[in-house]
Amino acid sequence: MIERRFVTTLREIPGYEIVETRGLIQDSSAFKGEEGKIKQLIKKAEELGCNAVVNIQQTAGYGYHCIYGDAVIIRPKTLPAPELPEVPDFTNPDNLSSW
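RE: above sequence
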């Protein structure tokens, strides 16, 4: 099940990277409120094997209301390993003179 925090109007989710986009999904059924349409987007994204819906937009006119977004697979961003100071080779006596 897609967590609600992974359903957003943002193009990306802070702290996560999009690893695959599975397509544009939409719902334009006339008799559902906005919450019902969002639930349909989530259902369609889950059917595609996605774990997030981003870039949600909506458009409306006389007699219609459409909501759409991108079905994506995300994963947490990994931080680069910190740079560690160089440690001298203590097995070589020549390196000990600098200490």
